[in-house]
Amino acid sequence: MDEDHIVGNKSEKPSCCRNKKKICIITVVVLVAVGVFLWVAGIFNSKYLPESMKGLVDEDPFDGVVYRWQNGYVSSSGLSITIVDALEEKYHKFFELAVNDWNTGSPDVLNLRTSSTFPDPECRSQAGAIRVCNGDYGDTQWKGQNSVLLRDDKIYASVAVMNDFYLDRSNDATREYIMCHELGHGLGLPHTDEWFWNFDQGNCMDYTSRPHNNRKPGQVSFDRLARKYGPNAEPEIPSAVSGGSSTVTSSAGVNDEDSLMDIALKMFDEATKTTDESGDVVEVEQVDIGAGYSVMIRRMLA
What we know:
Oligomer: single chain
Largest sheet: 9 strands, mixed
């Protein structure tokens, strides 16, 4: 037998090995193609996903507590509060866009009035209002922050601040997104998602690295607000948090509601400037300020 022929046969790999190699290559190519498709779908919006993949996006993503404004601001027609523009002029158009977006949703359960005042980087709170401010707060690790003053799980005041340290270097889509996001917290809504790199849900309460997709409130936000403020609102569950009765006496012995509210607002303003006890900047933080009040702080991390 020819020696070259024998050597050639020995060097040939069995056909089963060649087939396995082809299968591996095909599998890798398919996985890469699927990954690219999912990434591209995420860049645009989850609404472009095939129906069979829509389950990857949570249909009711509000898994945090949805707070309700206290009864004095809620009627049969919904929630009626004032949103105060205490911003510099560079933010006015984003403020107006965001208020209009929240005010014109369906179901329509919001009656949002606006007022304007001088720019107030300290963002001093006021009862029955969401006050919106901006300033250069430095490298805080957050672009926007919202705080609400709570008693018996009801909102009494809210402040939202935009951090110029980051937003001055951001585009208009980011500023619009952050403004919409922080106002949503002021209405009582939590985040719908806290992962920047997954599918965009198309609502501004969703974290995203592509803010142009999430600049508006989204239907899921209006549906959730209707469950709090609409004619068929879900029944209120008594709070399990201490804070108790409608008349609360402070440690200073104050039991007049107006005086107590003034004290609570001052404590609220101080609490909004704190960080977690560990010194870390966290996305969500609740601070007990006494006299039955607490502060819920939510931050859009940079």
